[in-house]
Amino acid sequence: MTLALALSGCSSDSAGEASDSGSAPAASAPTGSLEAVVPTPAPSPITASAAADGEAYEYMGVTVTGGPEQAPSIALGPDFAPVTELATGDVWVGEGEAVEPGATVTVQYAGVGQQSRVEFDSSWSRGEPATFSLGQVIQGWQEGMVGMQTGGRRLLVIPSSMAYGPQGSPPAILPDETLAFVVDLIAVDNS
Q: Is 74:182 a contact under the CB 8 Å cutoff?
């Protein structure tokens, strides 16, 4: 399975899902007064801090090992559970240009399913990086890659609702499966 097929072919449709903004109801105002409506900002993804290059990196029950320009080893601990919001952690921070929304990126990556505990896709195993527009991939990648700098390695822990949802992407990705991706950013084109 290639990244283009794995990440763009089966994105979940959240248009039919009910959404609660999480804002509290407005307090009652005295009769005749005007009440200001303040929009509630969208929640930001959970973010972990960086580890030193080549050291074991642990976050949310996922352990990542391997140095720069090496395929990562991804181990899922017993505490790696399904998540309901996107979480990102920089295994190490790059020093180059940062990814902006809608950018085209060149990456090396590997993805593992939380339920199956199986690596379902890896550019490393194919021996070549993948290049794609963030507009063509699952929502977890679209949001989770923003701000990453070239030369960095990032862990994306993506809830099913931002990946393949209840349909999954059989046989590799199970229905409602949380996904863990380790991504090395090689190049970015923000134009």
A: yes
pLDDT tens-place string over residues 10-54? 333 333 333 333 333 233 333 333 333 333 333 344 445 455 556
* Strands of the 62-65 sheet, one edge to the other: 57-59, 62-65, 73-76
The residues, any chain, with a CB within 8 Å of residue 182's CB and separated by 6 or more, are 64, 72, 74, 91, 109, 110, 153, 154, 155, 156
> Of 48-52, 81-85, 110-114, which range is least confident?
48-52
Average pLDDT, the chain: 80
- β 104-113/87-92 pair status: unpaired
Q: Can the peptide bond before residue 171 be classed as cis, meaning omega within 30 degrees of 0?
A: yes
Instruction: Output the six-digit token pair for 96.
Output: 């180059």
67-77 as b/e: b if 16+ CB within 10 A: eeeeebebebe
Q: Where are the domains of the chain?
A: 46-189
In the chain, the largest separation of any two C-alpha atoms, in whole Å, equals 69
Its CATH class, for the domain covering 46-189, is alpha beta
In the block, tokens 């998540």 appear at 83
pTM (2 decimals)? 0.75
